[in-house]
Amino acid sequence: MSRLTHLDDQGNASMVDVSEKQVTFREAVAYSEVEMLPETLKLITEGGHKKGDVLAVARIAGIQAAKRTSDLIPLCHPLMLSKVAVDLIPNVERNVVEITATCKLSGQTGVEMEALTAASVAGLTIYDMCKAVDKGMVIRSVKLLEKKGGKSGHWKVES
């Protein structure tokens, strides 16, 4: 197992120095889902929510969160993302909204945290917009699905 990289020589938390790393294409895909009552999912999919288009707002929130990850997660590098996509798919059979966030850039460090943040905040936004009708919603399965680029190369979760 490799050494944690956010520790300096004295064992203190520090921002990793990436100045010597090569600029490469990097991409990360993360996932989360929000489980809810069937009535709540129907309200979202039929556009009957008083607060507006829940999925559109969650998509924008996820994109904004990815762009602000370094403000939210200590020691993350501020990144100039070239692409952020947040896809929200209602799954009526499972009573969930499935969220997939993809982040891309050419840079010296990866975008895993940005993709995970986007997927998480999109789920939190759905919860926030729908909590008045369904306080029992569950945000779960926040995970990295795939990453490409950088020193460690390509990684993909095993199905």
From TrEMBL:
Domain Molybdopterin cofactor biosynthesis C (MoaC), first and last residues per copy: 15-150
Any single Pfam family the record assigns to this protein: MoaC
Listed GO MF terms: cyclic pyranopterin monophosphate synthase activity
Gene3D superfamilies: Molybdopterin cofactor biosynthesis C (MoaC) domain (3.30.70.640)
Top EC class, one word: lyase
Catalyzed reactions: (8S)-3',8-cyclo-7,8-dihydroguanosine 5'-triphosphate = cyclic pyranopterin phosphate + diphosphate
Active site positions: D128
Residues the record lists as binding substrate: L75, C76, H77, M113, E114
EC number: 4.6.1.17
Pathway, per record: Cofactor biosynthesis; molybdopterin biosynthesis
SUPFAM superfamilies named in the record: Molybdenum cofactor biosynthesis protein C, MoaC
GO biological process, one term: Mo-molybdopterin cofactor biosynthetic process
Lyase listed as a keyword: yes
Superkingdom assignment: Bacteria
Keyword annotations of the record: Lyase, Molybdenum cofactor biosynthesis
Role noted for this protein: Catalyzes the conversion of (8S)-3',8-cyclo-7,8-dihydroguanosine 5'-triphosphate to cyclic pyranopterin monophosphate (cPMP).
Family the entry assigns: Belongs to the MoaC family.
Subunit details: Homohexamer; trimer of dimers.
Protein name per the record: Cyclic pyranopterin monophosphate synthase
The organism's taxonomic lineage, starting at the top: Bacteria, Pseudomonadati, Pseudomonadota, Gammaproteobacteria, Oceanospirillales
